[in-house]
Amino acid sequence: MGTLAHTSVSGAIDLLSPPLRLRLLGQFRLERGTENLELCRNGQRLLAFMGLRGRVSRTILAGTLWPEVTEEHARGSLRTTLWKLPRGEPPLVRCCGDTLVVTPALRVDVDTLTKAAFGVLQGYGAPAHVPPPLGLLTVEDLLPGWDEDWVRVERERLRQLRLHALDALAETLVREGKPALALEAAWASVRTEPLRESAHRAVVSAHLAEGNVSEAVRHYHAFRALLNEELGVEPSPRFARMLPVRPPERAAAHDPGGLLGWSG
């Protein structure tokens, strides 16, 4: 009986505790409710790595965060950094033998982005009254300005995931008869990577879905000119076949209508 009562009280305390949020998209922020918790630089690096991985061995964590010192020194730095983390219930990081585990109570914005992106890519249908997750996919990069190798790798992974999800979302919205929203998703992908053909195909597909053939053709030629100027290559035959009229053999030497003004 005592154990059940303790569990019940603990659960009630957890429900009343301010939510813990870790924001890694954009500037690093650790929040408890409306309070912004301050961490030292090493504390930020440790919690960012743990927030991305969830659980990791001490050896891997110490070697990743302090790669240029001896293992003994790295483990000492890890112990010091763990000791300096903000105190609270539940603790941010708990030890399970040689493994460190981030608390399940910590809500990480990268997890929200990843869930939304995979939901789009795997075709999970949302109720008709639920808006598409465009806002969740048009976020800042992971920890801009951080230059550690592990951050760069994860940043590029998330960037590619977002781009694929935006392209897929645009295609889905076209099929659902929502070309205006499809254009928003397609342009978000174009702004992130102006030379990405799949994003431009999504723009053209949305224009064609609205019956705006002239805008579709103009956009194709604008992208063709940009691609020729930047890389000296042509769009794929697949892209050309989307148009109801055959494009000329050579791309124009200018940007028709200034459609690709984002590149500057």
TrEMBL record:
Keyword Chloroplast: no
Signal peptide start-end: none
InterPro entries, alphabetized: AfsR-DnrI-RedD_regulator (IPR051677), BTAD (IPR005158), TPR-like_helical_dom_sf (IPR011990), WH-like_DNA-bd_sf (IPR036388)
Recorded superkingdom: Bacteria
Keywords for this protein: Two-component regulatory system
Domain Bacterial transcriptional activator: 108-243
SMART domains xrefs: BTAD (SM01043)
Gene Ontology biological process: phosphorelay signal transduction system
PANTHER family: TRANSCRIPTIONAL REGULATOR REDD-RELATED (PTHR35807)
Protein's UniProt name: Bacterial transcriptional activator domain-containing protein
Organism: Streptomyces phaeofaciens
